[in-house]
Amino acid sequence: MKQVYNFSAGPSMLPKWVLEKASAEMLDYKGSGQSVMEMSHRSKDFLAIIEDCEARMRRLLNIPENYKVLFLQGGGSTQFSMVPLNLLGEHGKAGIINTGAWTKKAITELKKVGKCELIASSEDKTFTYIPKDYTIPTDLDYVYICENNTIYGTKYKQLPDTQDIPLVADCSSCIMSEPMDITKYGLIFAGAQKNIGPAGLTVVIIREDLLKETDPNLPTMLDYKIHVKNNSLYNTPPVYSIYICGLVMEWLEDIVGGLDNMKANNEKKAKILYDYLDKSKLFKGTVEKEDRSLMNVPFVTGNEELDAKFVKEATANGFVNIKGHRSVGGMRASIYNAMPVEGVEKLVQFMERFEEENL
Amino acid sequence: MKQVYNFSAGPSMLPKWVLEKASAEMLDYKGSGQSVMEMSHRSKDFLAIIEDCEARMRRLLNIPENYKVLFLQGGGSTQFSMVPLNLLGEHGKAGIINTGAWTKKAITELKKVGKCELIASSEDKTFTYIPKDYTIPTDLDYVYICENNTIYGTKYKQLPDTQDIPLVADCSSCIMSEPMDITKYGLIFAGAQKNIGPAGLTVVIIREDLLKETDPNLPTMLDYKIHVKNNSLYNTPPVYSIYICGLVMEWLEDIVGGLDNMKANNEKKAKILYDYLDKSKLFKGTVEKEDRSLMNVPFVTGNEELDAKFVKEATANGFVNIKGHRSVGGMRASIYNAMPVEGVEKLVQFMERFEEENL
Predict the structure, then answer these.
(1) In the beta sheet, which residues pair with residue B189?
(2) Chain B residues in contact with A237 (beta carbon < 8 A)
(3) What is the CA angle B344-B349-B355, rounded to 5?
(4) Using a CB-CB distance cutoff of 8 angstroms, which residues of chain A are in contact with residue B193?
(5) Superfamily designation of domain B258-358
(6) What is the CATH number of domain B16-256?
(7) Cα–Cα distance between A269 and A295 in angstroms, integer?
(8) ipTM of this complex > 0.90?
(9) Whether B278 is catalytic
(10) Does B339 touch chain A (CB under 8 A)?
(11) DSSP structural state of residue A161
(12) Chain B contact for A10, CB < 8 A?
């Protein structure tokens, strides 16, 4: 088997422990004679799987009882619509801080059904920082952020102070990378395919009091209340993806030892890469230091041809999917939970060699 | 490993050939050093997978070039809304033939956004037949049917003659069970979890000319045009589920040898079970003979306690998930493509023994 380090932004690397278990259990889950992929979503075996997945998630993130956990489909792109369709109320207006492509899409979907207050934006500097000086109006139904921007590699180190206004956060690329204070949020959502499972599963964590009356003509599948009432089993959920997500939670809890350990490991990896970028004469990070993501590290040489050469040689040497997002170019190393420290160490060694040869 | 025969209505049995290949490739897909679950949806490896899956589907079903194939999320329940939101037009009205729970849900979602003409219904006899005598009005944007009703075990042997009005069919539980004439339909959709893959993938086959202008405020993810324009990659698709669906297509094409063979095998299995039901003094099928499904076979003893006893003993003997849908009771044997003939033969032998002991 070829040894590669997969720096993909999502779908992305999964813990080997998870894949080995999934492979071993593929034809026979715990002596049931069935694959989890073949299990009725109403079977006892599967109900135990989804309940265990949620219980582990609740323990890992310390999710309070007044928050519901949902396992849905459709990715962040569906949440861009579900959030305003469910949370707009009295004011018919939400505030958004624009930190790039993902918040722009959220703005587009919000504007279809309500008013959008642009609280702040970092577009003036190509989204290379997190806006900090702004005033949040009081006539908003919620404030929306993308907590970690996968494309630009920015991360909120401090959440906006929204007072009593519910904070909604797209945490697709940072969920489970470190402990979070769930009580600071009204709603969190995350596409699973970056840090917690396969593509095709979306996790939503929502504070109960936000489950309000919706338009009676809202499509049933877009109504959080329906999914809450049915414990994510209104229709057939993505059974196998929930099983894999459960295995990731088991790995986080029992093998890694919780999110404090995970955070320490993630900080160690990020430091190796950022320290090198800060001293390199060839490569440089593109994000303001104080707003750098632990998960997605974009960098450039400043020369497009050299970038392309680097990507090509890195790929040939087993550092795969390191090309930057098609909208920004350059390189991006996504170093999610499953990336081992040695993967980052070896990448930096390779970058050092490349620097020597090309400076 | 325990040998069980899984009669689940969905998620349901998958070909062992598919599961063995998936297990073997779980950690290393074709020497890439990655699991398909870890692959960027924009990587060359994954693009080859989704293109091969579609190409095989097109060959198997003989899909004409003027039909688009989409790989979406959200299941049939999302299609109940997407169909009217995209296909209602000039008349603002669709006709539906009500054959039970699934068409009822489609009616509910249709009525949220347009007018519903109930063309016919078999509710008078608890949905145990397919309506045949009806007139289809001409002022409809489309006619909607559930071609095979998973819960009641009914199947259209002849499609409604809708003249120039597009026919929309929910084929979740019959797709790929036999050849189809795609040109008779305007749109077909199918949740993958019954005959073609894992839960969390929905396949839509739509005739190009039905991709009309939609309400500009329609959520992006509910717009067929967006998905067509982006070859199902507008957002991150359910990568791993598409890979498994591709393996099922490979099995159908290369191992089974196409849908004529698959149909012959399915007819053989169904005949074994229906022939027994027709001569049994204890069990009886619940559906009119001419409308019986090849895939889902509901049956009862006429005595609820005996039904429960049968389900319990069948389960203990390795015939699992044979309980009828919670809304109708009794038993249901779902004998999808992946169920081998011997599974049905052994079930019938077990039923014969049970009959002897309990008559």
Answers:
(1) B170, B204
(2) 199-200
(3) 120
(4) 236, 239
(5) Aspartate Aminotransferase, domain 1 (3.90.1150.10)
(6) 3.40.640.10
(7) 9
(8) yes
(9) no
(10) no
(11) -
(12) yes
